[in-house]
Design goal:
By secondary structure, the chain is mainly alpha-helical. The protein has helices at about 5-20, 25-30, 35-40, 50-60. The protein has a single domain (about 5-60), classed as lambda repressor-like DNA-binding domains (434 Repressor (Amino-terminal Domain)), CATH 1.10.260.40. It is globular, with a radius of gyration of 16 Å.
Amino acid sequence: MTDRRTLSGLTVKLARVAAGIHQYELAAALGISPQKLSMIENGRLQVSQRYLAYVLRPIESWPTRTAPIPQSAAIPGIQT
C-alpha cells in the first residue's frame, strides 16, 4: 500500500526530474542537504502539505534547459 509520504516524495521527484533539475541543485535552492531531499523523495521523511508546496515552488520557476539535439537523433538531410 502506498502512503502519503511516498506519494508526496514521488511528486517532488517526478517534478524535479521532468524539469531537468539535479537533486543537489534543488537542495541548494531550498537551503537543505541533498540527503534530506533524498529522504523526502523516497518517502522516508514525512513533510507537511505546506512544506511540500515550499519544495515544489522553485521547480515551477526553474529556468528551462534546452539540450542540444544529439547527432544520433538528427534526421538525414535536415540541418539543425
